[in-house]
Structure formats: structure tokens, C-alpha cells
Amino acid sequence: MFPELNNLLNTTPAGVEQGVSLTMARERGQLVFLEGLKSSVDVFFQAQEETHPLQFLREASAGNLEPLYQFVREALKPVDNEEATWRCPVLLVDDLSVLLSLGLGAVAVLDFIHYCRATVCQELKGNVVALVHDSGDAEDEENDILLNGLSHQSHLILRAEGLATGFCKDVHGQLRILWRRPLKPTAQRDRSLTYQYKIQDKSVSFFAKGMSPAVL
Fold first, then answer.
1. Residue from 40, 55, 146 nearest 100 by CA
2. Which of 65, 114, 152, 198 is the most buried (most CB within 10 A)?
3. Is the four-CA dihedral 177, 22, 123, 113 of positive or negative sign?
């Protein structure tokens, strides 16, 4: 389920420049990683003694994500009756749109996220971070349902998009940030900001609209 994260894990210095080593985190038991591509191949071509997290791939009517949720829940359990090792865990899903492409309906995916949020956010006081691709002008009802459903559930939405004016070598796109604070008074519940960005070799530069270094 995490193809891009898998690329980072397969590169030794991944994340070190930013102070995070995913490889070391995995070795220390701080990272549990489900390799979606490899796991899907195993589901199709290898006999499974136990229920696989991606078991829905072999079902005639895809829609049951309970094994995948149980994988998440089991990964967060303490080992050998010890105290919980996960404090404020973060569940990263990259990306939910792939589940739609595999034949799952938006309602099934939203149910999966709902249960994950109940476990990670409510029980363990952690966070769920999910990537979803916007189909843009293409008519995709299931993707629209997923996007709208997640938007209503989310407290923070980051929307990366291209420039309306087209390609620019100094500005690669813009990032719209929306905070939702349901406990605030109605007039203060939503707050939004928009930044432009430029992707560099090992980092991303952010700046206010019209404040690109190339312009200044």
C-alpha cells in the first residue's frame, strides 16, 4: 500500500538529511511497513495459511477490508504483554486512490478509514495521514465520494496542485492548507493559507504567492 515509501526504504540514506532514517526506524520496531506491490503478488501466486491483509484481491466481490484493518490493529498491539510501545502513532496510507483502482467502492474505503481513525486517533491519540489523487476534470463519482468523505472527516487538508497559468520553471505549483477546528466558534472554525513551492534535489522550497526568489 506504500509504493513510494518502499522506494525510500530501499535507499540506505533515505530521510537522513531530514533527521529521519526509515530503515533504522524499521529495524528498531518503530515502523511497520506493508509492501503493497509485493504483498499483492503473494496473494495471487502463493498459498496463504492465514488471512492476508490484502485478501480482498482474491475475492469475487471486492469490498471487505477488515483483514487490512486487523493488520493495522495488530501492528499497534504491545508485544508479549508489555506496555504499549506506540505513543501517538501515525498511520500513513499511500494511497487510498489505489484501492478504488483495485475495484473497491468508496464507501468500503471510507469505512476502513473510519475504523482506523477510531483506533489510531481516539484510542491511541495518534494521527492518520492519507494520500488521495484528485481526478480533476475527469468524471469519477467514486473518487469524488472518497474525496468529499475524507474532507469532512479531516482536521487538516493539504492540497497540492499545479499553477492555473501553466508550467513555470521557478514555481512548480501551489499548496493549499485548510485547518478545520470544530471546537472553535463558527467564524473561527476554518482557516486557510496558500503557498507556492519549487521542488529541488533533496528538498522543497515554500514561499508566499508572488514571492518566488526568481521574482524578487
1. 146
2. 65
3. positive
Reported as a single tens digit per residue, the pLDDT across 25-70 is 888 778 888 887 777 777 777 776 677 888 888 775 667 899 899 9
Cell of residue 4, nine digits: 513510494
Neighbours of 11 (CB within 10 A): 12
Predicted structure pTM score? 0.77
Cell numbers describing residue 140: 469519477
Categorise residue 205: left if φ over 0, alpha if ψ from -120 to 50, beta otherwise.
beta
Alpha carbon 131 to its chain's center: 4
Q: Check if the beta carbon of residue 203 is closer than 8 Å to that of residue 172.
A: no
pLDDT digits (tens, 9 = 90+) for 88-106: 889 999 888 888 888 888 9
3-state DSSP call for residue 188? Answer: helix
Q: Which residue reads 492465514 in cell numbers?
A: 50
- Give the single-character DSSP code of 189: S
> Coil, strand or helix: which one is 20?
coil
